[in-house]
Amino acid sequence: MLDMPGRGKARFITFEGGEGVGKSTQARRLVDNLAKVSIGAVRTREPGGTPRAEAIRSFILQGRPESWGAGAEAVLFAAARLDHVKQLVAPSLESGKWVVSDRFHDSTRAYQGLTGGVEEKLIAALEVLALDGRKPDLTFVLDMDPALAFERVRERAPEEALVATGDRFEKEELDWHQRLREAFLAIARDNPERCVVIPANQGAEALEQEIWDTITRRYPETVAGPGA
């Protein structure tokens, strides 16, 4: 991996959490803030990020493999992740660019593993295959009461739009989303050196600032703040 002059090595940052907590918005804002201090970064998402991975994303979120079970879904996500890592994540980091991803392997652990009941042995084996030694340097877990997050989702995409797109993860029952929230918090507790839990029920600007403050504390070579 190439080092950026005066900036240390390129970092791999991920955003995790349930639906409607603001992951996509904050990933975009972080890339913008990195650009302000002349740090090149690539924004991506999972599943997705590459043409093959995006095709798998569409297949999964339309609910087509739903009857196959959570184990088969975990395998599909791993296939998408393997392509994502090899074609986008690893090359970007090796070229000196930071990578900021809206979801990564923790989502499979939370959705298909801790919430979906897939055995840890399978989840761990798929991670060895798909990650190819690449784990995030820092993961922001955006935490919010699912009931409040649901209101955000409804504002973003009315119920009829959800039916039309077929995104079944957003249509799960509220208690399922509460279990999902607890799964992400459990992952954060098990990985305190990597995961930072941030309350997502604050304003977008306040959330953005808290994320940036964490970045500058963790990696002071990025300077004290945007535009500094």
Automatic annotation (TrEMBL):
PANTHER family reported in the protein's UniProt record: THYMIDYLATE KINASE, UMP-CMP KINASE 2, MITOCHONDRIAL
Any Pfam family matching the protein: Thymidylate_kin
PROSITE patterns associated with the record: THYMIDYLATE_KINASE
SUPFAM superfamilies in the record: P-loop containing nucleoside triphosphate hydrolases
NCBIfam families with a match to the protein in the record: DTMP_kinase (TIGR00041)
Residue span(s) of domain Thymidylate kinase-like: 15-211
Residues binding ATP: 17-24
One Gene Ontology term of the molecular function aspect: ATP binding
Keyword set, alphabetical order: ATP-binding, Kinase, Nucleotide biosynthesis, Nucleotide-binding, Transferase
GO cellular component: cytosol
EC number of this enzyme: 2.7.4.9
Origin: domain of life: Bacteria
Keyword Disulfide bond: no
The protein's name: Thymidylate kinase
Protein source organism: Devosia enhydra
Gene name of the record: tmk
